[in-house]
Write a structure and sequence with these properties.
Nucleotidyltransferase, domain 5, five-stranded mixed beta sheet, 5 strands
């Protein structure tokens, strides 16, 4: 299995960007539930090279390539070494604006939550750079498009994006598991709102609920 590394981050650091943020989303193709984005930026401590080796040794990778148990473990480890932010776009926003614009909203919120909360007491001099999985995040306050790079399959190439993908996946899976206790018929604790055969049959039998995305279940 190939693993992501810090090549993209190192280039940004060498170019003078002192806070490099990876961004990814999860739930874009689901039939139900919100789309969730996460942002992750490595905490710069002393002995950076030693820290990079430690992070690489954890086996951080595209969340889709990891077991649920591994994702849960890594989510805790990531919080030790990365500042993280979560952004959510609701089912209502997905139905109103479409999944692409809703995903952009979730990503902007993830970046905003990270930069406003984690860095409120840190002077960064505006030197932010976004590394995003296959997207540019337009209209992100303080981070213009020239300070962004969209990386195709970035969650398998860039550790910060991979870390964000894990944080987003764990957060959304937990959310859908909680929602499944109210909407018990759809099996969301197992399928996280995605279009499984069980989910399809449940919709045929019980109809949709307010957390279903209308264009996805027509």
């Amino acid at each position: 299995m190939n693993f992501p590394d810090f090549s993209y981050e190192e280039k940004c650091w060498n170019d003078g960007y002192n806070m490099v943020i990876g961004v990814d989303e999860v739930g874009r193709g689901a039939w139900a539930g919100p789309v969730i984005a996460a942002s992750a930026a490595m905490k710069i401590f002393n002995e950076k090279e030693k820290l990079l080796k430690k992070i690489i040794s954890l086996g951080i990778n595209d969340s889709k390539k990891l077991t649920a148990r591994k994702r849960e473990f890594l989510s805790g480890e990531i919080s030790k070494y990365f500042y993280c932010g979560i952004g959510e776009a609701s089912v209502g926003e997905i139905n109103r604006y479409g999944i692409v614009k809703a995903t952009e909203k979730a990503m902007r919120r993830a970046v905003g939550n990270l930069t406003m909360k984690q860095f409120s007491n840190v002077t960064m001099n505006g030197r932010f750079f976004l590394l995003v999985d296959a997207f540019y995040v337009k209209y992100t306050a303080g981070i213009p498009l020239r300070n962004q790079k969209a990386i195709i399959q970035g969650d398998g190439k860039c550790i910060s994006i991979a870390a964000a993908s894990i944080v987003a996946k764990v957060y959304r899976d937990r959310l859908m598991e909680r929602l499944s206790t109210k909407y018990t018929q759809y099996g969301w604790e197992r399928n996280a709102g995605y279009g499984t055969e069980y989910h399809r049959r449940a919709i045929e039998k019980y109809g949709i609920c307010k957390l279903h995305r209308l264009k996805f279940v027509d």
